[in-house]
Amino acid sequence: MATEFKLPELGENIESGDVVRVAVSPGETVHEGQTVVELETDKAVVEVPSTVNGKIDQVSVQRSQKVKAGDVLFTYTPDNDKAAAPEKPQRAEQAPSEGASAPETTAPEESAAETPAPESPVPEAPAKERTPAKKIEKKVSSPPPAAQPRPTARPREQAAQQSAKPPAVAASSEMRLPELGENIESGDVVRVNVHPGEQVSEGQTVLELETDKAVVEVPSSLSGTVNEVKVQTGQKLKVGDLILTLTGAEQKTAEQETAPAAPAPEAPAAEAEAGPGVEAEAVGPAPAEPEDHSDEGYMAIARDTFYSARTAEGKDEEAAFPPDVLPEADLHIHPRGVVRHAGHEHRTVPAAPIVRKLAREIGVDVYLVKGSGPGGRITEDDVKAFAKAVFAQLAESRLQGAVRPELAKLPDFSRWGKVEKVSLRAVRRKTAEHVSLAWNVIPHVTQFDKADVSELEELRKRFAPKAEKAGGKMTMTAIALKVVASALKAFPQFNASIDMASEEIIYKRYINVGVAVDTERGLLVPVIRDVDKKNIIDLAVELSAISKKAHDKKLAPEDMEGGTFTITNLGGVGGTSFTPIVNYPEVAILGISRAHSEPVWNNDKFEPRSMLPLSLSYDHRIIDGADAARFLRWIVDALEQPFLLSVQG
């Protein structure tokens, strides 16, 4: 009988992906861990491994198809060996019960060696010793009349179950995926650097993760011997997922945790002193009882306290919980979670009155809040966190509504000829979202100018060998970095951001310039920091290094954060000019096109000069046209007269 294999969860907030490659075919035998399809989600390509063994009957997906979690990838016939495998744990589960009933098994003997055997006094205890034992029972414990005595075999079963547990020395420590950075919740495993049996030390890289546009090395937080690796290449991980287990790292802690269980044998010892006829309840509850009734006790105390207070005030339950008066509010602006008000329905909710009052005041339905306290109780922090999350989703949905306006339906192009439909790739989809946001939020204006770089080109060629010797390349972009940094000092409004919500302009006292890099995966913008504090040779070396990291997919998230201005150079491709889109939340971007020779009138004749086209796009909310013209003219003068850099900045 064929069984369906469905696409598992891809990670938090990732619901679908595009099929890049189908790695299996009908009739092929698939094994657990084998890659079956490759999916592209956002800016990462994920290899989806098989979790089953069997023979594939039919493949249900194809290349470029969009699939989401739960969709059927293929149907297969399971292997007989794999189908029979689940029977083993059932036999293992029966082992403890057999050990508890058979006294000749090794587990009870080991337990008896560690603790006094409760049945050892049985042959020597005369019948007349039962009377003193009853006196002990009255002094030690007075169980209620309804309580029934436990059978004498119960302590032996507990001893057998305790002895069947693995020893403390076999306990292993778990290493889980730590926080990767702000707003980064998951990643794809690119490479696993350790294997079972290997000795790892704290700080050693155990795996590499690809998150969005960056590959992050995850270091070990423990030292020890790898017991088992829980991840594999292509697997999607999120923060908190188990990576591997180690032995020898937390062995001492494990022993300390098991040490308090030693007083448990006191119950059998007391039974031995009292006599064979005394039941287990004669010495009171065993201190090692694993059951925890703290939540039930807390709720019982809370109910008793509430009942006493309500009785003292002479109120019934309806008077103690009067119906809430709903505030007059426009419910159409409330997202899910705050439309219904707390207390409107009388249902059982594990929240104190003060917590319910807070929920009513801020308009949160307390019945939708998940409690983090003992027994699932809802705290004030839970209500506040829920409200914050709901309103954050509301703000995001409104922003997306502004960025993604409803588009008119396209006509049927096949009416006029043959067409081919290709799914929008995740990389292009992400880029489209960002540039749409920038275009809809920022009122763009573009200023054009040309710089005569004839003398600068001679200087560039003269210092190119020095830059190459240092490990860089003397390009026009490297020179433009230094020129732009000096211009931003002279015009600080270009090194700022505007906050319309708080009606503030944020001036940045640091100069970090992003450089657009064209890669196979799409457009990346790594950031070079403190550009104003470095010379052109240093900038050329750093620009070469960070461009190589972008092409090799080695950029970390922090390499693309914190920019205050962006430069994009299309001179290597061609063109005379273009209108670059501002990299939001920055307020300006400089575009550089290909330099070309053209005749320029010089006093009494035309001379061929190398002219470099420049395009400055800016945010008209904070930058006026005249300021933009002055800023771009400052850059032109600095390129035409490099001596100005040493004089002015």
Low-pLDDT regions:
81-153, 162-170, 250-295, 324-346
Count every helix, treating DSSP H or I runs of 4 or more residues as helices.
17
Tell me the total number of β-strands: 27
Binned strand content? 15-25%
What's the mean pLDDT score?
74
- What general outline do the C-alpha atoms trace? globular
The assigned structural class equals alpha+beta
What is the terminal separation in angstroms?
Answer: 77 Å
Helix share bin: 25-40%
State Rg. Answer: 36 Å
Written description of the protein model:
By secondary structure, the chain is α+β, with helices and mostly antiparallel strands. It is 33% helix and 22% strand. It is built from 17 helices and 27 strands. The strands form seven sheets. Strands 17, 20, 23, 24, 25, 26 and 27 form a seven-stranded mixed β-sheet that branches. The chain has a four-stranded antiparallel β-sheet with strand order 1-8-6-3. The longest helix has 24 residues, at 380-403. The chain is globular, with a radius of gyration of 36 Å. It starts with a strand and ends with a helix.
Describe the secondary structure blueprint for this structure.
Blueprint: E1 3-6, E2 16-22, E3 29-30, E4 35-41, E5 44-49, E6 54-59, E7 66-68, E8 72-78, H1 80-84, H2 87-101, H3 106-114, H4 130-140, H5 154-164, E9 173-176, E10 186-192, E11 199-200, E12 205-211, E13 214-219, E14 224-229, E15 236-238, E16 242-247, H6 251-258, H7 266-274, H8 294-313, H9 317-320, H10 353-362, H11 380-403, H12 426-441, E17 444-452, H13 454-470, H14 476-490, E18 496-499, E19 504-507, E20 513-515, E21 517-519, E22 522-524, E23 527-528, H15 536-551, E24 565-569, E25 588-592, E26 596-602, E27 605-619, H16 625-640, H17 643-648
Parallel strand pairs: 20-24, 24-25
Antiparallel strand pairs: 1-8, 2-4, 2-7, 3-6, 4-5, 6-8, 9-16, 10-12, 10-15, 11-14, 12-13, 14-16, 17-27, 18-19, 20-23, 21-22, 25-27, 26-27
